[in-house]
## 1
Amino acid sequence: MAQAFYQAVSSLPCELASLLSGLPPQQVQEITEIRLRALAPVVLHQACGRAFLSREGKLTQTVCGAFCMTQSGMQECFHALCGYSVHSMQEQINQGYVPVKGGHRAGVCGTAQRLSDGSYAVQEIASINLRIARDVTCEIPPWLAQPPREGILIAGQPSSGKTTLLRSLVRQWAMQCCVSVVDERQELFPTVQNRPLDCDVFSGYPKHIGMQHALRAFAPHVLVCDEIGGQEDAEAVCRAVNAGVCVVATVHADCLKELRTRPTVRMLVQTGAFSKAVFLKGRASPGQVRQVYDLDADG
């Protein structure tokens, strides 16, 4: 677990990376996020709370003596996380994040300037949230152990374990049938080494394009997507269902009302591709199922 933390921080500039890399393994193995804000202390988040990084490279519970980010330091972190090639990351930056080697992801917040081609250049970086990706799995409910024949939406709050459950399900199902995964943000299976057998991973593809390629050339029994939403995704889901493929995807929603009222999620539900909605318990119990709704009966 600690190795994922050290890998993620290695993408930061030398001074900050050196301080964070010096933290002992027993302290970093449960860290999920590193929050950087201009003119503010570096904050490290764990399930049990948060801590600050001191100027000596230690964890502390007090702001006094904490390592604070300068505005120029924020800009340097942004460029480092982009591999010093901001232009090559422009499409992801437009969506508010930067993919980091190893499946980690850095959310980016700053002042946006709209360019002539419709894209955005982010200037005066104000906040960065570096999320540590870990190849974590969880226990699978018995009724989900067999590959599904009808579509499933896995729903929950941020950090409720949607990706963790989806990763666990793919590993289970791939032993029994052909599974295609569209991993746009490279969080499910960031490296070739950790991908299960009989599983084709479309890594970094926009979801609607990855789904289209999977349907055309790989004939999956189950098509899996993480964090799905939007008109293009809904249309791609419809094409998959028309081709006889079962779609399993995650969405941000904490209750049935959100599924019905949030426009991007509602479009997915209205495709008729999903027969069940699986709601997770939340941050305190990542990957654990709280409730299952039959969307066909409810609709």
## 2
Amino acid sequence: VDEDFFLVTSSFEYFPGVPIFHSRNLVNWTQIGHCLTRESQLPLAGAAISGGIYAPTIRYHQGRFYMVTTNHTHGGHFFVWTEDPAGEWSDPIWVKQSGIDPDLFWDDDGRVIFSCTSGRVGIDQSEIDIRTGETLTEPDCTWTGCGGKVPEAPHVYKINGRYYLMIAEGGTEYGHCVTIARGPSP
């Protein structure tokens, strides 16, 4: 956002959740707070080691910061928002869709595309209502990657009129890589 960069990280079973960092040069980072600081935002009862919060993503759109993530132990996908990333974040807005590693993308026509790793071994996408989290279109498996196992962690970008879907695949071991698909629509 302008000269500022923001980064969020997984916090798994720890509270407060989702530390947020700020940088002006992508080298030096300072923690400015947490996105999830209230129990209403972060139910963790019974969360085992490596349970809780997985793979958050931060996005900025029209004056608001959005952090989307998965509470693997309680409730699934949700996002919170704020106008001040170092301040208080909203209560969760839940998205009823299965999977992990969610992403939000705002298209030029105002549609919000929700992407995530599906349980069907691919990347699911659907349109959601950003005010309520309601799914407006059925999740569709748009890509299964380039043949590596466990396609995951989708991020959608639009550059010079083309859409790009960047994912990780290959699992969290040897062979792990980043691949990108592109097309005329999300």
## 3
Amino acid sequence: MKTIAILFVNYGPYHIARVTALAEAYSDRNFKVVGIELARQELEYAWIANTEKLPFVLYSLVSDQLLQQIPVYEVTSRLIILLKNLKPDVIAISGYSHPAMLLALFWSQWKRKIAILLSETTEYDEPRVGLKEQIKRWLIGQYQAALVGGKPHQRYLLKLGMAKAAIFTGYDVVGNDDYHPEKIRLLPKPINQPYFLAINRFVTKKNLPFLINAYAAYRQANNQEAWNLVLCGDGEMRPQLEQQIAKLGLQDSVHLPGFLQQEELLPYFAHAKCFIHASIQEQWGLVVNEAMAAGLPVLVSNRCGCFEDLIVEEVNGFGFDPTNQKQLTNLMLKISSGEVNIEKMGEAALEHIQRFSPDYFADGLIKAVEYALAHH
């Protein structure tokens, strides 16, 4: 029996949903699935995931401390020991930015095992510099196949020299069933007014001052009928955002419930009227998947990696330029005015996101593994 190891920095709810689907898909094949995470907890994403009763074994290199508290050499040495013991035939590796991910790639080369890249990088995530791109081109050449989010991620790997036949899609999915309207609709209302919903870390790239300004203009244009705005999340920009909200006199209509775990977010998804994601830069934007899985129409920045694959203009939502405040304000007015059928749009969002399920991840990764085995 062959073993495939899936290596992530940290297993959150959607990593578990993906690898669970993979383990179930491989259950009647000659493959054993194991999960490896660098740490049970880390600073960037403070989610809590239930790791009990999983259909695969999950190994945590660091289980009792934050990843950022452990020296890199300690994490990498623990990974080497684990790989030596597990002897996986295939390693699916999440990106190449952390040293441990690179180590896993080089270990697979040394042991002549198969390495599959899991990637959601696009050409436009950040400025691309010649020398760095040359190194990356060499690095990409060391993987036997890749599983990516969608079209822009596929194009970037093609540009870096990976064969088109070696690139598969399905990486960026969540556990859609957890958000289904039928499952969450009876949850208590977090606020009684109709509202737009946004969920973000409060960091610069999420473009939240822009969103608040667009909302202020929307409220000014539609004062009597205006919906509220709920911004779930937390981060370094919170004091700045609170100051902006106060300056604009929006304290009664903009709500900041803080950082919430998946279960705590479900009531907000259940009763929102529309979801907004305004990032100036985003590799994918899984929160858009979640909103669509909850049956919400979506307004999504066209700089998000998910935009091209998830948004069908005027069918399940609208895209906008995240530097064009007036455009977003007008879309908010359009959505809340009754000019568009938001129920029908939400149903279309729910239908479309079913293609982006954990089974889609499993199918894509299995195809990537089969391709790599055939060409190894």
## 4
Amino acid sequence: MKRILSSLLLLCFLCLNMQAQSAGKTYEFRNGQWYNGKGFATATWYTTNGVLSKKAPAKIDSIIDLEGRWVVPPMGDAHCSSVTENPSASNTLNQYLGEGVFYLQMLGNTQEGRAATAPLLNKASAPDAVFANGVITCTLGYPFLEYEGPANKIKNPSQWGERYAELKTSQKMLGNGYWFIDNKVALEANWDKIKMQNPGVISIYLMDAQNNGGKEGKGLSAEVAKLVIKKAHKSGLRVFAHVETAEDLRLGLKLGVDGFANLPGHNWDGVGDSNKFELSAADIKTLVKKKIPLVLLLSHAQAAANRAAVQGFHKKTLKSLLDANVIVAMGSDDPQRTLRMELNYWFGLGELDDARTLKVLCENTPRAIFPNRKIGKIENGYEASFLVLTDNPLTNVLKARVQAFKVKNGVLLK
């Protein structure tokens, strides 16, 4: 029986009572302003079996009047670090869902962290996620201390350097939070073990690789990185590279990585010049040509010594990337916070292009996480997941976090 719901209060009440039963139902969503990648257009859409359609199905269970509200695809966090290894993971996931973030990519986690959080994910009432598991670096390369310190009950990072001699011989998390790969022999000996952990993506570190690759405290050498990428692609796995310099990004492009986990110089303190982090026009052109997503992590520089210099670098770089239509993606990489801090930082830079930032949030980032799924767009045959907003995000992109309600794969959420 069709029910026309003209009141949002009634709709929210319906969501509370129907969430568990709405899967598989057919809905007509009328009088909405739907996002098309550039702006909004008034339209009617239908959801059947969790899929969007412009064509009315033979049977409609409910008609929902959106009353002119704005509809966008859900958001994503392409570098989520606040869920695994978190005893309050369920609360954090609720925050993500509340903010409209349906897709998460974990570019480094332990097996214990994955085991604890995986049951909470990939369902109607929680975000979908992909795990990289242990990161791949060189022996004693970055970021093994970030795993080894907590494993030895040393939670304060300031103490890791003081107890470095102890931690570098401990290696409790080797083969779990991180892998040491220095040559082809080590890769062959460990690759089946890496695959047995069922990663959804491979995470590698290139830290000034041309000059210091393979050295303690850095990351893979160029030669080993090439071997890892080739091995991953042969196994059908994408590779995201963490980089330090612009040269690292160029190396990653040359070797065929599938994405970059951060902007070169994302941790720059603003002291000295930014030359070694600056992307050239050729770099940007190659990123566009190869359609390689680039996660920026700009908010990591909030405590920079010379904040004005860092923000100037960020403003200039962000504009050049967006102007060139690079697939910029958004990520947080914050062990305690959701994507909110990163988005707030972008907004705080001033003169933010709301339309292009919305595209980063709702289209680029979800598709960077799940490139083989039909998400990130309101189109025929795409997954019926979207956010119904109470205000126009093109006047202020932060309004995308305030939703009247959400739909995830055809299921109404409160």
